[in-house]
UniProtKB/TrEMBL annotation:
It comes from Rhizobium glycinendophyticum. The chain crosses the membrane at residues 35-53, 65-84, 104-121, 133-155, 215-245, 257-278, 315-331, 351-372, 393-411. Keywords: Membrane, Transmembrane, Transmembrane helix. It comes from the Bacteria. This is O-antigen ligase family protein. The lineage of its organism: Bacteria, Pseudomonadati, Pseudomonadota, Alphaproteobacteria, Hyphomicrobiales.
Length: 444
């Protein structure tokens, strides 16, 4: 295997490694194994002299959603200029937060382009074969690890072995009984990694009819259910709901309309669930759920506070001011103000809430419509063109975009592999269509 192949394999295998012991002091990225693997990957790909001209070429092709998203970011920044200018929390400034948020987005945008360079260097079929094999290997590994961990629920020596393994690289090695954490910080992130494998396992089953792929897909579903993660349940529902809509609804126009409607409903649910969870807080609500509910609901409130939102990266300033009077309800909230996490911005636990808080209702609607259009277009391409680099890539993009909709209910960032891999495969499909000559079309 080439250096590029090894680097891609390591990048994919790092997907579950969220919450590792920090290597660099770089804020929220410091505990993300995928980030460190991405540095090695970018270095390996761009070390080839022929890669740089291709990087210039692939920068020209950017999915419509990302262009819309960047425009919304710029508009929210301009319209909230004075708000950003005055934002301050301990040693964090509004413009500092904008720069850090933009830098993270820009870095993962660069990673997407470097993956496209890799495709140009090796050819899509070779690249895809390696990516699919790596995700299938990861899926097998996660199922085996889940089996080992579940046995540890009943045999303490096995649980101690897993704890010793996790202690060597995980920031918080303790795990909850009857919930699968694997090598991730918590069950949700472990489930995210399982979800990331499913589109590739499904694609292998679809193209080869392999029974082993079907068995692996079933194993991933069972392990995701046993993870005890509500996000995993939502992810499984959305994954198979999108498959059903694509495969079984009658007619492409009906399929497109259903996908657009379903995506829109997910974005509506992304706003309603934090508010519902906040209203449902009672005496028996766990501290973790209280914290999540207050923070996500405050982010939603931030979006309605200003017609154009708070500005890109600014919603946390509003949240820390709003929840100050609610610290008595959660020791985790107090910890952000007075304890070990003093001076840190609390996570918002919802990409939907953060997006509304940053861009306001109008910006949120624009992002939702652009996302729904992307899903609809990928579904159409996956049905229309049987070529691996078009229909196959579009199907992967479609399923990965659906998975991110589920993950967005639990995290507040686009800094997850599914999001960027989705736009990568969408670009591959669109580029392949654009580069097909008229003579090739006639032959087909």
């Amino acid at each position: 295997m080439t250096i590029r192949g090894v680097a891609l394999f390591l990048l994919i295998m790092s997907t579950p490694l969220n919450g590792i012991l920090p290597i660099l002091n770089i804020g929220e990225l410091s505990r993300d194994g995928f980030f460190y693997a991405s540095i090695l990957y970018i270095t390996a790909i761009m070390s080839a002299p022929s890669a740089w001209p291709k990087l210039v070429h692939v920068v020209k092709s950017t999915p419509e959603f990302l262009m819309v998203y960047v425009v919304v970011v710029l508009m929210s920044t301009l319209l909230n200029y004075f708000n950003i200018e005055t934002n301050q929390y301990i040693d964090r400034s509004g413009w500092g937060r904008f720069v850090s948020s933009s830098a993270i987005f820009g870095y993962y945008f660069l990673l997407m382009k470097v993956i496209l360079v890799h495709v140009r260097l090796d050819g899509y079929k070779k690249f895809y074969a390696r990516a699919e094999s790596a995700f299938i290997f990861l899926g097998v590994l996660l199922v085996l690890l889940s089996a080992f961990e579940s046995l540890g629920w009943f045999f303490s020596p096995l649980a101690k072995i897993l704890l010793a393994i996790r202690s060597s690289f995980v920031f918080d090695p303790e795990v909850s009984s009857f919930r699968l954490s694997g090598v991730s910080l918590e069950p949700s992130f472990n489930a995210f990694a399982m979800l990331s494998c499913m589109p590739f396992v499904y694609a292998r089953r679809r193209t080869t009819g392999s029974r082993r792929s079907l068995l692996l897909l079933f194993g991933l579903v069972v392990c995701a259910v046993l993870s005890g993660s509500r996000t995993a349940y939502v992810g499984l529902f959305i994954f198979y709901a999108f498959l059903f809509v694509r495969n079984f609804t009658a007619g492409r126009s009906a399929t497109s309309a259903t996908i657009f409607l379903f995506t829109s409903l997910v974005f509506v649910a992304g706003l309603l669930l934090p508010l519902y969870a906040f209203d449902s807080i009672g005496g028996g609500t766990s501290v973790s759920n209280v914290t999540r509910s207050y923070l996500a609901a405050a982010a939603v409130e931030a979006g309605f506070d200003r017609i154009f939102g708070q500005g890109f990266g600014q919603v946390s300033f509003y949240v820390v001011q709003t929840i100050y009077s609610q610290l008595i309800y959660s020791w985790e909230l107090r910890d952000y103000f007075y304890g070990a996490r003093f001076g840190e911005f609390p996570p918002l636990f919802s990409w939907y809430a953060r997006t509304l808080g940053e861009f306001g209702l109008l910006g949120y609607a624009v992002v939702a419509i652009a996302y729904a259009r992307a899903l609809r277009d990928n579904a159409a391409m996956s049905l229309r063109d049987a070529r691996l680099e078009v229909g196959g890539a579009a199907l992967l993009a479609y399923l990965l975009l659906g998975e991110f909709l589920a993950i967005g209910f639990s995290i507040d960032s686009v800094r997850v592999p599914q999001f960027w891999l989705a736009w990568t495969f969408m670009t591959i499909a669109r580029t392949a269509v654009a580069e097909t000559s008229p003579s090739e079309d006639q032959q087909r």
